[in-house]
């Protein structure tokens, strides 16, 4: 995997680009001078966990021949306090209309987070990953 | 921290939005049906590490009264193979014009990754984080 992160505006507006030319913007928090022109790195990290899990859950649902209409994940997270402030916990609240019964969706999410999700497997084991179905 | 991840197009195009309404798109890899409309979750994860480190390095440079003109980070990463494929290692290659001498920049990067970077502190300790100055 190769990516380029380039500062495009002072103080902290960055453009991230992958090998296919797909781009997104990142920015720092307003408290330290961010301009709200992109997501913050820790928001991007939490979002990447949710998206990785969502993709894997959708793939399992497809194999089970369930078609998800609306599919969303609300993300709530809390950080530690200190010089660095890693996540203490991240909660993923899944919402899925008409796609599958709640118990099956919960089993699929559990399987995904424990076995298939590469972002979850890349996170520090001190971070508690919670999930629920809305 | 609160975020919403919403699927906006089948099969796997997601929009991530933070509390300030800032948005970005995520998508799956083309191999499993992704449409190249957004960065992939694992790309987002590697990018969030680079951006977090870059912001902290720039803040240290500012305190040292160095003004960075061009500031970029090339990201190279390798993943494990298996059911999930977390990162094996991530290398951050910093490029900075006219801002500071190479030795000082390397010291700042080392300090950032070991002490200040919240994304680095959120990653699994099995992932080797390398850095260099171009």
Total strands of chain A: the figure is 6
The whole-angstrom Rg of chain A is: 17 Å
Which chains share the greatest interface? A-B, 71 and 71 residues
Strand order of the largest sheet of chain A: 1-2-3
Instruction: Give me the secondary-structure category of chain A.
Output: alpha+beta
Word description of this protein:
The structure is a homodimer of 134-residue chains. The first copy, chain A, has helices spanning 41-63, 102-116, 118-122, and strands at 2-9, 13-18, 23-26, 71-79, 87-96, 128-133. By secondary structure, chain A is an alpha+beta fold. In chain A, the strands form two sheets. In chain A, strands 1-2-3 form a three-stranded antiparallel β-sheet, with no helix packed on it. In chain A, strands 4-5-6 form a three-stranded mixed β-sheet, with helices on one face. In chain A, helix 1 (41-63) crosses helix 2. Chain A is globular and about 50 Å long. Chain A starts with a strand and ends with a strand. The model of chain A has no long low-confidence stretch (mean pLDDT 95). Chains A and B meet through strand 1, strand 2, strand 3, helix 1 and strand 4 of A and strand 1, strand 2, strand 3, helix 1 and strand 4 of B. Strand 1 of chain A pairs antiparallel with strand 4 (71-79) of chain B, so a sheet runs across the interface.
